[in-house]
Design brief:
12% strand; eight-stranded mixed sheet; globular; TIM Barrel; 12 helices; alpha/beta
Length: 330
């Protein structure tokens, strides 16, 4: 996590406990645009949407004050396509968010906008990486993307803020690259986090881990990641979420989804949806909880926003010393 003061770390942890006990959302994901400059094979978005209805920065502040999340995930699409992205970040932080994460494919990231966004209030930059080499370009259908990340991220890491994290969605295509990706993060001086591919987004089952060989490769990789985690702090996932990610792939589902309760999504037009995979719109969170969350039986994903926000109170409490240490001393 980004380097913050002990007072800020304590405030973040305290508000997290309050959010958990009062059933407030832990994370709100602000999808500020559905346009994207990539066309990733495991995603349902891609291309530029003309005349997209987008709310203004001040409306993000008002929404945040109403929803009262602990953390904000600012994503898309590709959020850096919005010329007012810094103003949006600033407005969300003014609305009361304690921790803001910008999710980007990194194609437009440079030192200038990195520093500008940090000043606006971004605490962490989550940059997608599917392969530890140029295969990433083909998977994202953006030539030269890996080379750009290879040139940009180590340079930004050397600025010393410790706020860049690679985000890898585990698929059948890259399951053999889990350890090489972790080593690439170490080489670049950044952190890494893993999440699970879900067929809900595209309907394409080709990227699912659906046989014994795939699962055995994943088991071995996670065991090696846990060893690596004890040796180095570059791996962001708690042990519990890594083991649950394996469990999700083994059983094909993860029950007890808390979409709309522990997390939810704000669309570019300001409407609320339970998650990026269920886009039924609701006028307010109360209506969403009543009409969707209370009867929600979906268990077909275990994406990052769900895995972190749905950790039990005891799990969060167990990890508090690690959270504070990472936030303050890294």
């Amino acid at each position: 996590m980004a380097n913050i003061s002990l007072w800020q770390g304590t405030k973040l942890v305290t508000k997290g406990i309050y959010s958990y006990l009062t059933n407030r959302p832990i994370v709100v994901s602000y999808e500020v645009t559905l346009s994207c400059n990539c066309n990733c094979r495991h995603c349902d978005l891609g291309g530029i949407i003309k005349d997209e209805k987008q709310i203004k920065p001040e409306e993000y502040r008002d929404l945040t004050q109403r929803l009262k999340p602990l953390a904000a995930q600012i994503s898309g699409g590709e959020p850096l396509l919005r010329k007012d992205i810094a103003a949006i970040v600033k407005a969300i932080k003014q609305g009361g968010v304690q921790y803001a994460i910008l999710v980007t494919n990194g194609a437009l990231l440079n030192e200038n906008n990195y520093l500008q966004l940090r000043k606006a209030g971004v605490d962490q930059f989550s940059v997608s990486l599917d392969f530890p080499d140029e295969r990433h370009d083909e998977f994202r259908q953006r030539p030269g993307l890996y080379r750009r990340l290879e040139q940009t991220l180590p340079k930004l890491a050397k600025l010393g803020f410790r706020d860049i994290i690679l985000n890898t969605a585990i698929t059948r295509a890259n399951v053999r690259e889990i350890l090489p990706l972790a080593k690439k993060a170490i080489e670049w001086g950044v952190d890494i986090s893993y999440s699970a591919y879900t067929v809900l987004r595209t309907g394409n089952k080709d990227y699912c881990l659906n046989n014994g060989e795939d699962l055995e490769i994943l088991r071995q990789a996670i065991n090696e990641l846990l060893i690596l985690k004890k040796q180095d702090t570059r791996l962001a996932n708690p042990e519990l979420t890594l083991r649950d990610t394996l469990r999700f792939f083994e059983q094909g589902y993860m029950p007890d989804c808390k979409a709309g309760i522990r997390f939810l999504v704000v669309m570019p037009d300001g409407s609320l949806v339970p998650c990026s995979l269920h886009r039924s719109k609701y006028a307010n969170r109360e209506e969403m909880v009543e009409e969707f969350s209370r009867t929600n039986q979906c268990g077909a994903c275990y994406v990052a926003i769900r895995s972190y926000s749905e950790m039990s109170f005891l799990s969060h409490a167990k990890n508090l010393p690690r959270y504070i240490h990472q936030m303050v001393f890294h």
